[in-house]
Design brief:
Layout lengths: L13 E2 L1 H8 L3 H10 L5 E2 L6 E4 H10 L2
Antiparallel strand pairs: 1-3, 2-3
């Protein structure tokens, strides 16, 4: 279950999978499921190719879950 309080993330900030899960209070598998469904969009770092999530998308997903 997603956290009931609004995640404290900067709208233009970039967050790793771990940071995004902590902000939303969900498991990594749940975040992956939301990403595959298209509920949240993942960007990729140019340097190492890891997924990152933008703060405004995190807030948007949290708002949609209310």
């Amino acid at each position: 279950m997603m956290t009931a309080t609004r995640p404290s993330v900067a709208l233009d900030g970039r967050y790793t999978v771990t940071q995004t899960c902590a902000a939303l209070g969900i498991h990594r598998a749940t975040l992956l499921r939301y990403t595959k469904r298209g509920a949240i969009r993942a960007a990729f770092r140019r340097v190492d190719g890891r997924k990152v999530y933008v703060g405004k998308d995190i807030i948007k997903l949290w708002s949609a879950s209310l």
